[in-house]
Write a structure and sequence with these properties.
Layout: H1 28-36, H2 40-56, H3 59-106, E1 115-121, E2 127-130, E3 136-139, E4 143-149, E5 156-167, E6 176-180, E7 183-187, E8 191-196, E9 202-209, E10 212-215, E11 224-227, E12 231-236, E13 242-246, H4 250-253, E14 259-266, H5 267-278, E15 281-284, E16 293-299, H6 303-312, E17 317-321, E18 336-340
Parallel strand pairs: 5-6, 15-18
Antiparallel strand pairs: 1-4, 2-3, 3-5, 4-5, 5-8, 6-7, 7-10, 8-9, 9-12, 10-11, 12-13, 14-16, 17-18
Protein backbone atom coordinates (compact mmCIF):
# COMPACT_ATOMS: atom_id res chain seq x y z
CA UNK A 1 0.00 0.00 0.00
CA UNK A 2 1.19 3.50 -0.73
CA UNK A 3 0.73 6.10 1.97
CA UNK A 4 0.84 9.78 1.30
CA UNK A 5 2.13 11.97 4.04
CA UNK A 6 0.23 15.19 4.39
CA UNK A 7 2.43 17.99 5.51
CA UNK A 8 1.06 20.84 7.54
CA UNK A 9 0.86 23.96 5.45
CA UNK A 10 2.11 27.26 6.87
CA UNK A 11 -0.53 29.15 8.71
CA UNK A 12 -0.13 32.26 6.67
CA UNK A 13 -0.53 30.35 3.41
CA UNK A 14 -3.97 28.93 4.19
CA UNK A 15 -6.88 31.17 3.29
CA UNK A 16 -10.55 30.55 2.94
CA UNK A 17 -12.22 32.77 0.37
CA UNK A 18 -15.88 33.30 1.09
CA UNK A 19 -17.37 35.36 -1.70
CA UNK A 20 -20.63 35.50 -3.46
CA UNK A 21 -19.65 32.50 -5.62
CA UNK A 22 -18.89 30.29 -2.62
CA UNK A 23 -21.42 27.49 -2.39
CA UNK A 24 -22.44 26.38 1.06
CA UNK A 25 -24.11 23.04 1.64
CA UNK A 26 -27.78 23.42 2.10
CA UNK A 27 -28.07 20.77 4.86
CA UNK A 28 -26.16 18.16 6.89
CA UNK A 29 -27.25 15.47 4.45
CA UNK A 30 -25.76 17.49 1.55
CA UNK A 31 -22.51 17.94 3.49
CA UNK A 32 -22.20 14.21 4.26
CA UNK A 33 -22.99 13.31 0.65
CA UNK A 34 -20.30 15.70 -0.61
CA UNK A 35 -17.74 14.23 1.85
CA UNK A 36 -18.47 10.70 0.69
CA UNK A 37 -17.73 11.67 -2.89
CA UNK A 38 -14.26 13.09 -1.99
CA UNK A 39 -11.06 11.03 -2.23
CA UNK A 40 -8.62 10.79 0.64
CA UNK A 41 -6.51 13.72 -0.55
CA UNK A 42 -9.47 16.08 -0.71
CA UNK A 43 -10.58 15.03 2.77
CA UNK A 44 -7.08 15.62 4.16
CA UNK A 45 -6.96 19.04 2.49
CA UNK A 46 -10.28 20.08 4.04
CA UNK A 47 -9.09 18.89 7.44
CA UNK A 48 -5.89 20.97 7.13
CA UNK A 49 -7.94 24.04 6.23
CA UNK A 50 -10.22 23.53 9.24
CA UNK A 51 -7.26 23.22 11.62
CA UNK A 52 -5.75 26.38 10.16
CA UNK A 53 -8.99 28.27 10.70
CA UNK A 54 -9.10 27.12 14.34
CA UNK A 55 -5.59 28.45 14.87
CA UNK A 56 -6.71 31.80 13.40
CA UNK A 57 -9.54 32.15 15.93
CA UNK A 58 -8.79 34.87 18.49
CA UNK A 59 -10.21 33.18 21.57
CA UNK A 60 -9.59 36.22 23.78
CA UNK A 61 -11.48 38.52 21.45
CA UNK A 62 -14.29 35.98 21.14
CA UNK A 63 -14.52 35.83 24.92
CA UNK A 64 -14.62 39.61 25.13
CA UNK A 65 -17.37 39.73 22.48
CA UNK A 66 -19.50 37.23 24.40
CA UNK A 67 -18.85 39.08 27.65
CA UNK A 68 -19.89 42.38 26.05
CA UNK A 69 -23.10 40.83 24.79
CA UNK A 70 -23.87 39.46 28.23
CA UNK A 71 -23.01 42.83 29.76
CA UNK A 72 -25.34 44.63 27.32
CA UNK A 73 -28.14 42.21 28.10
CA UNK A 74 -27.49 42.73 31.79
CA UNK A 75 -27.58 46.53 31.39
CA UNK A 76 -30.82 46.31 29.38
CA UNK A 77 -32.41 44.23 32.14
CA UNK A 78 -31.20 46.69 34.81
CA UNK A 79 -32.54 49.64 32.79
CA UNK A 80 -35.87 47.87 32.27
CA UNK A 81 -36.15 47.15 36.00
CA UNK A 82 -35.36 50.82 36.79
CA UNK A 83 -38.01 52.00 34.34
CA UNK A 84 -40.51 49.52 35.76
CA UNK A 85 -39.88 50.72 39.32
CA UNK A 86 -40.08 54.36 38.18
CA UNK A 87 -43.39 53.72 36.44
CA UNK A 88 -44.73 52.10 39.61
CA UNK A 89 -43.52 55.05 41.73
CA UNK A 90 -45.26 57.50 39.35
CA UNK A 91 -48.42 55.44 38.93
CA UNK A 92 -49.20 54.98 42.62
CA UNK A 93 -49.45 58.76 43.40
CA UNK A 94 -51.41 59.24 40.20
CA UNK A 95 -53.83 56.50 41.25
CA UNK A 96 -54.18 58.03 44.71
CA UNK A 97 -54.79 61.51 43.27
CA UNK A 98 -57.38 60.17 40.81
CA UNK A 99 -59.20 58.37 43.59
CA UNK A 100 -59.16 61.49 45.75
CA UNK A 101 -60.58 63.66 42.97
CA UNK A 102 -63.26 61.05 42.19
CA UNK A 103 -64.51 60.78 45.76
CA UNK A 104 -64.26 64.53 46.22
CA UNK A 105 -66.44 65.06 43.15
CA UNK A 106 -68.99 62.56 44.49
CA UNK A 107 -69.14 64.42 47.79
CA UNK A 108 -69.73 67.85 46.22
CA UNK A 109 -73.15 69.40 46.87
CA UNK A 110 -75.67 68.49 44.20
CA UNK A 111 -76.17 72.06 43.05
CA UNK A 112 -72.51 72.30 42.02
CA UNK A 113 -72.90 69.43 39.58
CA UNK A 114 -75.77 70.79 37.51
CA UNK A 115 -76.24 73.57 34.99
CA UNK A 116 -79.18 75.94 35.38
CA UNK A 117 -81.39 76.66 32.38
CA UNK A 118 -83.54 79.79 32.31
CA UNK A 119 -86.09 80.53 29.58
CA UNK A 120 -87.97 83.83 29.32
CA UNK A 121 -90.74 84.86 26.92
CA UNK A 122 -91.30 88.58 26.26
CA UNK A 123 -94.61 90.34 25.78
CA UNK A 124 -96.63 89.04 22.85
CA UNK A 125 -94.75 85.72 22.68
CA UNK A 126 -95.60 82.21 23.87
CA UNK A 127 -93.09 79.38 23.83
CA UNK A 128 -93.00 75.62 24.05
CA UNK A 129 -90.44 73.98 26.37
CA UNK A 130 -89.49 70.31 26.82
CA UNK A 131 -87.96 69.64 30.23
CA UNK A 132 -85.11 67.14 30.87
CA UNK A 133 -87.60 64.43 31.93
CA UNK A 134 -89.74 64.88 28.80
CA UNK A 135 -92.42 66.95 30.52
CA UNK A 136 -94.11 69.53 28.28
CA UNK A 137 -94.45 73.20 29.28
CA UNK A 138 -96.28 75.97 27.44
CA UNK A 139 -94.93 79.30 28.64
CA UNK A 140 -97.18 82.34 28.41
CA UNK A 141 -96.05 85.85 27.50
CA UNK A 142 -93.82 87.73 29.96
CA UNK A 143 -92.95 84.55 31.85
CA UNK A 144 -89.77 82.87 33.05
CA UNK A 145 -89.07 79.25 33.92
CA UNK A 146 -85.86 78.04 35.54
CA UNK A 147 -84.64 74.46 36.11
CA UNK A 148 -81.48 72.39 36.48
CA UNK A 149 -80.05 70.16 33.76
CA UNK A 150 -80.36 67.33 34.55
CA UNK A 151 -82.89 67.13 37.36
CA UNK A 152 -81.37 65.89 40.61
CA UNK A 153 -81.92 62.38 41.94
CA UNK A 154 -84.62 63.38 44.47
CA UNK A 155 -87.04 65.77 42.75
CA UNK A 156 -87.80 67.42 39.42
CA UNK A 157 -87.88 71.04 40.52
CA UNK A 158 -88.67 74.14 38.46
CA UNK A 159 -89.29 77.75 39.45
CA UNK A 160 -91.83 79.91 37.66
CA UNK A 161 -92.48 83.62 37.29
CA UNK A 162 -95.50 84.36 35.11
CA UNK A 163 -97.81 81.70 33.73
CA UNK A 164 -97.29 78.20 32.37
CA UNK A 165 -99.32 75.13 31.52
CA UNK A 166 -97.62 71.88 32.55
CA UNK A 167 -98.08 68.38 31.17
CA UNK A 168 -95.92 66.33 33.51
CA UNK A 169 -94.46 62.91 32.72
CA UNK A 170 -95.48 60.43 35.42
CA UNK A 171 -92.70 59.16 37.67
CA UNK A 172 -93.75 58.00 41.18
CA UNK A 173 -90.13 57.88 42.34
CA UNK A 174 -89.36 61.44 41.30
CA UNK A 175 -91.95 64.08 42.34
CA UNK A 176 -92.36 67.16 40.14
CA UNK A 177 -92.30 70.45 42.08
CA UNK A 178 -93.19 73.92 40.79
CA UNK A 179 -92.07 76.82 42.98
CA UNK A 180 -93.82 80.17 42.51
CA UNK A 181 -93.17 82.67 45.26
CA UNK A 182 -94.89 81.40 48.41
CA UNK A 183 -96.59 78.50 46.63
CA UNK A 184 -95.16 75.05 45.96
CA UNK A 185 -97.07 72.64 43.75
CA UNK A 186 -96.05 68.95 43.96
CA UNK A 187 -97.26 66.40 41.42
CA UNK A 188 -96.38 62.93 40.12
CA UNK A 189 -97.93 63.14 36.68
CA UNK A 190 -100.69 65.51 35.67
CA UNK A 191 -101.84 68.51 33.62
CA UNK A 192 -102.27 71.84 35.36
CA UNK A 193 -101.90 75.60 34.97
CA UNK A 194 -99.94 77.86 37.28
CA UNK A 195 -100.19 81.63 37.16
CA UNK A 196 -97.80 83.64 39.31
CA UNK A 197 -96.98 87.08 37.89
CA UNK A 198 -94.90 89.19 40.24
CA UNK A 199 -97.01 92.32 39.67
CA UNK A 200 -100.25 90.57 40.62
CA UNK A 201 -101.53 89.96 44.14
CA UNK A 202 -102.70 86.39 43.53
CA UNK A 203 -101.13 83.06 42.61
CA UNK A 204 -103.56 80.60 41.07
CA UNK A 205 -103.29 76.88 40.34
CA UNK A 206 -105.87 75.17 38.12
CA UNK A 207 -105.92 71.39 37.79
CA UNK A 208 -107.05 69.87 34.49
CA UNK A 209 -106.06 66.23 35.08
CA UNK A 210 -104.54 64.08 37.84
CA UNK A 211 -103.86 65.24 41.38
CA UNK A 212 -101.61 67.86 42.93
CA UNK A 213 -100.49 68.76 46.41
CA UNK A 214 -100.35 72.50 47.03
CA UNK A 215 -98.30 74.05 49.83
CA UNK A 216 -99.55 77.62 50.16
CA UNK A 217 -96.68 79.07 52.16
CA UNK A 218 -93.66 77.34 50.70
CA UNK A 219 -92.60 76.15 54.19
CA UNK A 220 -92.59 72.78 55.89
CA UNK A 221 -95.42 73.70 58.27
CA UNK A 222 -97.62 75.54 55.80
CA UNK A 223 -101.14 74.63 54.81
CA UNK A 224 -101.34 71.76 52.31
CA UNK A 225 -104.27 71.35 49.91
CA UNK A 226 -105.00 68.41 47.64
CA UNK A 227 -106.57 69.47 44.33
CA UNK A 228 -108.69 67.29 42.10
CA UNK A 229 -109.58 67.91 38.41
CA UNK A 230 -111.63 71.09 37.96
CA UNK A 231 -110.29 72.71 41.13
CA UNK A 232 -108.85 76.22 41.15
CA UNK A 233 -106.85 77.40 44.15
CA UNK A 234 -106.18 81.13 44.47
CA UNK A 235 -103.57 82.22 47.01
CA UNK A 236 -103.57 85.83 48.20
CA UNK A 237 -100.00 87.09 48.64
CA UNK A 238 -101.07 89.73 51.15
CA UNK A 239 -103.41 87.79 53.46
CA UNK A 240 -101.85 84.36 52.80
CA UNK A 241 -105.36 82.98 52.49
CA UNK A 242 -106.31 80.41 49.87
CA UNK A 243 -109.72 80.12 48.19
CA UNK A 244 -110.55 76.78 46.57
CA UNK A 245 -113.34 76.45 44.00
CA UNK A 246 -114.41 73.83 41.46
CA UNK A 247 -116.07 74.41 38.09
CA UNK A 248 -115.46 75.01 34.39
CA UNK A 249 -111.81 75.88 33.94
CA UNK A 250 -111.61 76.58 30.17
CA UNK A 251 -111.21 80.31 30.65
CA UNK A 252 -108.15 79.71 32.83
CA UNK A 253 -106.33 77.20 30.64
CA UNK A 254 -107.62 77.95 27.12
CA UNK A 255 -104.69 80.27 26.38
CA UNK A 256 -102.25 77.35 25.95
CA UNK A 257 -104.37 76.18 22.99
CA UNK A 258 -104.33 79.64 21.39
CA UNK A 259 -107.68 80.76 22.81
CA UNK A 260 -108.50 83.87 24.81
CA UNK A 261 -111.56 82.99 26.88
CA UNK A 262 -113.33 85.73 28.84
CA UNK A 263 -116.23 84.82 31.09
CA UNK A 264 -117.60 87.79 33.02
CA UNK A 265 -114.03 89.11 33.09
CA UNK A 266 -113.62 92.71 34.34
CA UNK A 267 -112.20 95.10 31.74
CA UNK A 268 -108.97 95.81 33.69
CA UNK A 269 -108.23 92.06 33.57
CA UNK A 270 -109.14 91.98 29.87
CA UNK A 271 -106.73 94.85 29.24
CA UNK A 272 -103.90 93.02 31.05
CA UNK A 273 -104.42 89.76 29.15
CA UNK A 274 -104.68 91.47 25.76
CA UNK A 275 -101.60 93.57 26.51
CA UNK A 276 -99.49 90.49 27.31
CA UNK A 277 -100.93 88.49 24.42
CA UNK A 278 -100.12 91.09 21.77
CA UNK A 279 -97.19 92.93 23.39
CA UNK A 280 -98.86 96.35 23.74
CA UNK A 281 -99.88 98.61 26.60
CA UNK A 282 -103.64 98.82 27.15
CA UNK A 283 -105.01 101.42 29.53
CA UNK A 284 -108.53 101.79 30.93
CA UNK A 285 -108.98 105.56 31.07
CA UNK A 286 -112.52 105.83 32.45
CA UNK A 287 -113.51 104.53 35.94
CA UNK A 288 -116.92 103.43 34.63
CA UNK A 289 -115.29 101.15 32.07
CA UNK A 290 -113.50 99.33 34.87
CA UNK A 291 -116.89 98.01 35.97
CA UNK A 292 -117.65 96.50 32.56
CA UNK A 293 -117.27 92.74 32.15
CA UNK A 294 -116.56 90.84 28.97
CA UNK A 295 -117.80 87.37 28.00
CA UNK A 296 -116.49 86.00 24.72
CA UNK A 297 -113.83 83.74 23.17
CA UNK A 298 -111.18 84.90 20.72
CA UNK A 299 -109.23 82.46 18.61
CA UNK A 300 -106.77 83.43 15.88
CA UNK A 301 -108.08 87.01 15.73
CA UNK A 302 -105.68 89.91 15.41
CA UNK A 303 -105.53 92.71 17.96
CA UNK A 304 -107.27 95.05 15.50
CA UNK A 305 -110.13 92.60 15.03
CA UNK A 306 -110.55 92.09 18.79
CA UNK A 307 -110.59 95.82 19.49
CA UNK A 308 -113.17 96.42 16.77
CA UNK A 309 -115.41 93.70 18.25
CA UNK A 310 -115.10 95.24 21.72
CA UNK A 311 -115.92 98.69 20.32
CA UNK A 312 -118.99 97.40 18.43
CA UNK A 313 -120.39 95.46 21.39
CA UNK A 314 -119.96 98.16 24.09
CA UNK A 315 -119.93 101.95 24.57
CA UNK A 316 -116.12 101.87 24.59
CA UNK A 317 -114.07 104.12 22.37
CA UNK A 318 -110.60 103.00 21.28
CA UNK A 319 -107.64 105.34 20.96
CA UNK A 320 -104.31 104.30 19.44
CA UNK A 321 -100.90 105.72 20.27
CA UNK A 322 -98.17 104.46 17.95
CA UNK A 323 -94.77 103.37 19.19
CA UNK A 324 -92.00 105.97 19.08
CA UNK A 325 -88.22 105.93 19.30
CA UNK A 326 -86.39 108.09 21.81
CA UNK A 327 -83.66 109.84 19.80
CA UNK A 328 -81.41 110.31 22.82
CA UNK A 329 -81.10 106.61 23.72
CA UNK A 330 -82.68 104.88 20.67
CA UNK A 331 -85.17 103.04 22.92
CA UNK A 332 -88.50 102.27 21.33
CA UNK A 333 -91.67 102.74 23.34
CA UNK A 334 -94.57 100.30 23.15
CA UNK A 335 -97.70 100.93 21.19
CA UNK A 336 -100.56 102.01 23.44
CA UNK A 337 -104.28 101.35 23.32
CA UNK A 338 -106.61 103.44 25.46
CA UNK A 339 -110.11 102.37 26.43
CA UNK A 340 -112.35 105.39 27.05
CA UNK A 341 -116.05 106.34 26.73
Amino acid sequence: MIYHKAEKAPIDSIKINMNKNTQLPGSIEDLISSRLKQDILEQVSDAVKAVAEIEHVDSRQAYLNIQNRLQNNRQQKVLFNILLRSAAVLFIPLLIASGFLFFRQRNLPQEQQFATQEITTPLGVRSHVILPDGSDVTLNAESTIKFKIPFNHKTREVSLKGEAFFEVQKNPKLPFVVKSGDVNVTVLGTRFNCKAYEDENNISVVLAEGKVSLNTTGGQTGEVLILKPGDRAVFDKITHMTVLTNGIIDKYIGWHNGKLVFDETPMPEVAIQLGRWFGVEIEVDDPQIKNYKLTTTFENESLQEILELIKLSSPIKIKYVSATINKSNNIQTKSRVIFCK
